[in-house]
Amino acid sequence: MSTFTWSYSSLKDYINCPRQYHEVKVLRRFTKRVTAQMRYGSEVHSALEDYVREGKPLKKNYEIYKPLMDAILEIEGDRYCEHKMALDIDRKPCRYGSGYWVRGIADLLVVDDDVGFVIDYKTGSDKYPDPNQLKLMAIMAFAHFPELQTIKSGLLFVAHSNFITEEYTRDMVESMWEQHFAPDLTRLENSYQNGVWNPTRTPLCGWCPVETCEYHKGY
Ligand code: SF4
Hints:
Structural class: alpha+beta
Number of strands: 6
Radius of gyration: 19 Å
Strand order of the largest sheet: 2-1-3-4-5-6
Bound molecules: iron/sulfur cluster
Strand content: 15-25%
Number of helices: 7
Shape: globular
CATH class of the domain at 33-180: Alpha Beta
CATH architecture of the domain at 33-180: Alpha-Beta Complex
């Protein structure tokens, strides 16, 4: 039995700064500000989802993304938009809403026999792509769709027309887990057990919501 539930973004928050994670996610003493960039990202995501799911025309300012999305729509197979997946503590598939240990939403999942496609839309910069999110989605998709043997995945940076791709096979699940998630999850578990939430000082501390931290610019 784990003491916490997690998602890719919450684990990333912990990796970035355990103290911020603790103050924001555990104690809930502070909340992260919703930036204009985040709002734009949500709007684009839902516009792309509506276009892929039901062919709803893209608004004028998002029409530039149409050729990219049309290319994605050529992938054959059963399409799942904004597909919710969750695993229990034994990494078995379970319901998204309750009894889960980890959960996430694939922007687009296409299942074509034993091959799956997992695509995540990105509206920000493509300078430092982070494919670990794709790995977690692939691990969950392999669990939820036992017929899948291969998953082709990609981070689609819509504003840059850049597609960062990776391919996984079912026999890679254990090594992906051990290499990319288990060590940080062990650290997170230890933080919960021992109550140790060290700060990670970075140049971004001034924009952190934890105003009481000694590294916050206004403290
Ligand atoms: S100010 Fe910096 S060190 Fe302090 S909690 Fe925020 S991110 Fe972490």
